[in-house]
Write a structure and sequence with these properties.
With about 400 residues, this protein is of the alpha/beta class. The chain folds into two domains: about 5-45 and about 290-395, Aspartate Aminotransferase, domain 1, CATH 3.90.1150; about 65-285, Aspartate Aminotransferase, domain 2. Helices cover about 40% and strands about 10% of the residues. The protein is built from 14 helices and twelve strands. It has helices spanning about 5-10, 15-30, 45-60, 70-85, 100-110, 125-135, 155-160, 185-195, 220-225, 255-265, 275-285, 290-310, 345-360, 380-395; strands spanning about 35, 95, 115-120, 140-145, 165-170, 200-205, 230-235, 250, 325, 360, 365, 375. It is globular and about 60 Å long. The model has no long low-confidence stretch (mean pLDDT about 95).
């Protein structure tokens, strides 16, 4: 008889992947479903990056590589951090993993012991919480709200830290809310962290290049260099370069941590795909001129979705600074009756009823640690977004 391990029993499957899978399943059955759950750009990987991968295949670069990344990619990452963030690292301080989740896993399993706490602002990317649990740590929620712009302030961070706190996670721009921290907001958080030298920082900058208007992206080490020896700065090629399926995430930090993360990889994933690594070299070193136009397209989609959702009865949708998500509140709909006759008691009910009634797949806010909300990924065409938002408006108009 199969028996699941205690470690695995502590975690849940990814809600975003589950929602996307459900939408695909219904589409395969011939149903008219719009999936707004998956967090990936709808743009194709640029041709120069694809050609670099093809060239690597033809040149036989298909063997095992160094466990945590080829030297050429590490050098490209070092150059990227210097060029774009004014952060100085050596290649020995860089980890390349098969995606962002493995970066976090490798860091957590390298550092957490039973009872160690990790402060995670809510709402959070679904995988943060469960990776910490799987690694034997204890996640601690640091709540935010619509009123705070879904951003943690100094008082909230101070209240969440205890003598057992080992890490704090920061994600800017955020998945799921799209919220991004200003330099001043990071300064306030850094001042708290300086008072707690036992606390390390994992800053997830995966959506760095997807910021809108005149917002200027800043990562915490640019604000407070004194945190350098206890910060892991994480990024990747999936979002800015439309390379989600290539599975390359990377991070830079203290050399001792990077060595420990490589040790984990030596007994788990081993190296990321050699072909994907060579494609990532081209992504980071090659032309960058498509990134800002893509961000402007996302900004237009954001404005469309925010406007249409705020016209839906009972929905309050804040305007995010970046990424390609919105995180609307459905608090005004709780306790009311869906078109099916069922009472909406939670954001989970809202999402199920919306899918069954109007064929729009979104992700429930409870998966991100803050209810009653839902997440929409607007990484699709304007026509699809307009159709989806019209369906949501119709659903809400029929809620009694």
């Amino acid at each position: 008889m199969f028996r699941e391990s205690d470690a695995l029993a502590r975690v849940k499957p990814s809600a975003t992947l589950a929602a996307d899978a459900k939408a695909r399943e219904l589409k395969a059955q011939g149903k008219n479903v719009i999936g707004l759950a998956a967090g990936e750009p709808d743009f194709d990987t640029p041709d120069n990056i694809k050609e670099a991968a093809i060239k690597a295949i033809r040149e036989g670069k298909t063997k095992y590589t160094n466990v945590d990344g080829i030297p050429e990619l590490k050098d490209a990452i070092v150059a990227k951090f210097q060029r774009e963030n004014q952060l100085t690292y050596k290649a020995s301080q860089v980890n390349v993993s098969p995606g962002g989740k493995p970066v976090i896993w490798n860091a957590m399993i390298s550092t957490l012991n039973a009872g160690d706490e990790v402060v995670i602002p809510t709402p959070y990317w679904v995988s943060y919480w469960d990776i910490v649990l799987l690694a034997g740590g204890q996640p601690v929620a640091a709540p935010t709200s619509v009123a705070s712009g879904f951003k943690l302030d100094a008082a909230g961070l101070e209240a969440a830290i205890t003598p057992r706190t080992r890490w704090v996670f920061l994600n800017s721009p955020s998945n799921p809310s799209g919220a991004a921290y200003t330099r001043a907001e990071l300064r306030a958080l850094a001042d708290v962290l300086l008072r707690h030298p036992q606390v390390w920082v994992l800053t997830d900058d995966m959506y760095e290049h997807l910021v809108f208007g005149d917002f200027e992206f800043t990562t915490i080490l640019q604000v407070e260099p004194a945190l350098y020896d206890r910060t892991l700065t994480m990024n990747g090629v999936s979002k800015a370069y439309a390379m989600t399926g290539w599975r390359i995430g990377y991070a830079a930090g203290p050399e001792a941590l990077i060595k420990s993360m490589a040790k984990v990889m030596s007994q788990t994933t081993s190296n990321p795909s050699s072909i994907s690594q060579w494609a990532a070299v081209e992504a980071l070193n090659g032309p960058q001129d498509f990134i800002k136009p893509n961000a402007r397209l996302f900004e237009g989609r954001r404005d469309l979705v925010v406007s249409m959702l705020n016209q839906a009865q009972g929905i309050n949708c804040p305007t995010p600074e970046g990424a390609f998500y919105v995180y609307p509140s459905v608090e005004a709909l709780i306790g009311k009756t869906a078109p099916s006759g069922k009472v909406i008691t939670s954001d989970a009910d809202f999402c199920v009823e919306l899918l069954e009634t109007e064929g729009v797949a979104v992700v429930l806010g409870a998966a991100f640690g803050l209810s009653p909300h839902f997440r929409i990924s607007y990484a699709t065409s304007n026509a699809v977004l307009e159709d989806a938002c019209q369906r949501i408006q119709r659903f809400c108009a029929n809620v009694k």
